[in-house]
């Protein structure tokens, strides 16, 4: 694939996960607002010395960090679990891509007036409250702080890693956090911050890496990327995130067209190249116990269903066609996947793929991509979801280098 990258496009992508808004923030008249240039290295160093005279001395070890500290007078830089050289700025200030803090929702009927059947949505359910978050909205905001089924949650999407991850934002001690973007990246992945302590969190791992909460782990919650048509068919009474976000964005247009080409490469530096799969290969990946497994979409497309066992636990992976690329490649059907525990009433089920779903060999019941029994003796049953994520391989491999790659 031939890629022509103008300076403006490079700047756009450089800001993607870090917090710069594609197509810039606009005023009420629609004109682009001027952006303040990032501070120089000298200004950063001066800020580090004047704004952070911590008791630990110089938290940066005499080096000028590759990010601005002037925006973070309340962050405890003395506490950190990573080397600061791993973090760098994408250029913009914090919240350059604004999180959605007051999400509004509409009916499936209303969403159907602007969403195409094959557009990808992030499916999330809690306590019977079922919601769809279109990635064409998330790509411009990256974080949604929401309450679903009475539970405070954060739904996140890092376009650079193709990582959609849901978190419980209530800590074990009852503290409820809400998140924004720092404007920084680590391993090409979004670094978030909580507004309560200004600690920094790695989106991909859900772990606080800088600040008061360093070492604290957010709880992962199961979510899934599916086509809009699958959501409206399975949950016609569900809710969909509205474009009424309080911000002016070109929802429905894509600022990353072609980024996910298999011949492409990550835009930002990484500690190394795993080499076992193309960096931009899509995988659906899970961690059970101490075992990490990635299922490449290229293989799943061929078999459509995988009956597997991971760390002694039975799992089944479904894949079906019909979901478009998040990144707007015209006509590209990348499909979608789901990972489940294939056990109902103590019986382990074995699945085969059919044209209209997935049928278990034990009872003959037909199941859909969401793990719902839709026809047969077990109609109405729901397979337990396994926490999983659809990511670019380079992202998963960087954070999980010991991952086993499943192969047909």
Q: What is the CATH architecture descriptor of the largest domain?
A: 3-layer Sandwich
Indicate the mean pLDDT.
87
Radius of gyration: 21 Å
The secondary structure category is mainly beta
> Percent of residues in beta strands?
25-35%
The total number of structural domains is 2
- The CATH topology of the largest domain is given as Rieske Iron-sulfur Protein
CATH class of the largest domain: Mainly Beta
In terms of topology, how is this protein built?
Layout: H1 7-14, H2 41-51, E1 87-89, E2 105-107, H3 108-111, E3 120-126, E4 129-134, H4 135-141, E5 143-148, E6 151-158, E7 163-168, E8 179-186, E9 189-194, E10 200-202, E11 207-210, E12 219-221, E13 224-227, H5 228-234, E14 239-241, E15 282-288, E16 291-296, H6 297-303, E17 305-310, E18 313-320, E19 336-341, E20 343-344, E21 347-348, E22 351-354, E23 357-360, E24 366-367, E25 373-375, E26 384-385, E27 388-392, H7 393-399, E28 404-405
Parallel strand pairs: 4-14, 16-28
Antiparallel strand pairs: 1-8, 2-14, 3-4, 3-13, 5-6, 6-7, 7-12, 8-9, 9-10, 10-11, 15-16, 15-27, 17-18, 18-19, 19-26, 20-21, 22-23, 23-24, 24-25
Task: Please provide a written account of the structure.
There is one protein chain. By secondary structure, this protein is mainly beta. It has 2 domains: 212 residues, Rieske [2Fe-2S] iron-sulphur domain (Rieske Iron-sulfur Protein, 3-layer Sandwich); 124 residues, Rieske Iron-sulfur Protein (3-layer Sandwich). The chain has 7 helices and 28 strands. A 5-stranded antiparallel beta sheet has the order 1-8-9-10-11, with no helix packed on it. The N terminus is likely disordered.
